[in-house]
Specification:
The chain contains four helices and five strands, in the order αββαβββαα. The protein is α+β, with helices and mostly antiparallel strands. A five-stranded antiparallel sheet has the order 2-1-5-4-3, with helices on both faces. 22% of the residues are buried.
Amino acid sequence: MKKLILPCHQLQAFLQELLESTDYLKAVLVTDKDGVILAKATGPDLPDHVLEPAFSATFSVASDQSGKLGFGRNKIIMSTFDEDQVVQFNYTPLILTLLASSKANSGRSSCVGVLIAAGKDLEEPIKIVGESVSKAIQHEHKAKEYV
């Protein structure tokens, strides 16, 4: 069976489609554990700090710390703030971050469920890209061994 290859530009198109079709969504980011952005779709009202590497890298630290609770490695971390809510997915070696306005939680409706469903829908394409990233990293390490 032939392995599906998903170019980053195709992932970019998925992210952009999700951004445009989800109310209150401000950003969709795919990063590595160090916060390096591999693909993104952002809206006009995005806070600048969201694109900083520390934003996604902090998830890695929080994920590692929560693993010490004895429940195993976490899959999702949700955070709510005055203005925004963040749902981050651990798709090792990549991190998917969805940032939405907290206005989405007005009344009886909550967009956290929508964000979780959207993140799960992106799991397969992100894992395909993640496999490519892992192979590239392994290839780089092997190349350094020969130097």
